[in-house]
Amino acid sequence: MEDIEAIVVLQDPVRRQLYEYVVAQDHEVSRNEASEGAGIGRTLAAFHLDKLVDAGLLATESRRLTGRSGPGAGRPAKLYRRSGAEHHVSVPARDYRTAADLLAEVADGARLDVELRAAAAREGRAVRVAAGPIEDLNAVRTVLSTRGYEPRTDADGTVLRLVNCPFHVLSERHPALICGMNLALLEGLLEDTEGLRARLDPQPGMCCVTVESSKNNDD
Amino acid sequence: MAGHHLAQLNVGTLRHPLDDPRTHGFTSMLDTLNDVADRSPGFVWRLVGDGSNDATAVQTTLGADVIVNMSVWESRDSLWDYVYRSGHLDVLRRRAEWFELPKTAFQVMWWIPAGHVPTVEEAVERLRHLRAHGPSPSAFGFRDTYTPEDAGLGVANIDGHDQGPDHRLSATG
Question: Theoretical Cys-Cys bridge with B156: which of A20, B28, B113, B115, CB 3.0 to 4.6 Å?
Fold first, then answer.
């Protein structure tokens, strides 16, 4: 499916709501959960969830939720999560990704880590100036949401984990360079913000940086 | 793909000696990182020097100022998650502080029959092969997706010596 067709699928408000609910969860989502989350009937939810799968926006797998197996365990549930595919549309056509990859390739080879981090920190400071005062973790969350990081606050409310890496493809191809850049960007953003700090804490399937409230981390 | 493991070697030329204060940031992280590696899912083995917990004292034909790091993993993904998705990433982020700019490939990986413990000589030979001929099923990098079968390892015999095209490597490398 063409990228533009995948994106058009999200024009339907019900689908958009379902999509946003599924990708905001930290687990795979069943039809029941998605229909409750989006406040619509289960049959309607199932129909639209499968449209999202057809469009390549969600991926699905079947698993038994109860942990039981064998006869009497019931039918496996269909579970939905965000697909790994990326879709973007530019009108007129632009290809910044190829340019970014070539630039990163050269910067990586020449070990321009320090120079790139300095530029990223400047960008972070500029974002902070544009965003206005950032006083607490909630304010950081709002700023990072608009920049695509999909922040999620930990249960105790002191750590912000970033579920989406806005530089995903580049960070897979040039991890040391790009994750260093990303950390510097967020450090620039949080500079002068008392009690909050960005920290490199890479975990599988997440952005490499977390933001934490340092009041509770006096190490 | 049980029956095969992924071996990797990476090398770096230190800007300053190991005991120099300017290298301290690197050496002070080693024990922690090695501990993280040892506890990582899919970790199989890593090279250590005699009476040491790391490989910094291991010398090779690559030069006296070149330090090596070598390990074996169950899969490419387990190695990737350790290298780029653990505290190890911070060392990579700060690599320019401690290591010279590499002029040629500084990392190589290759498939081995499970149970085989690679030698440093074998690893250096793989790196030289990669440097001379570019990526191939015998010696490749993270960007490549060669399988053990590509390397002729589908029919490993009982003493762990592979029978595929790979066996020519030591004769030509």
Answer: B113
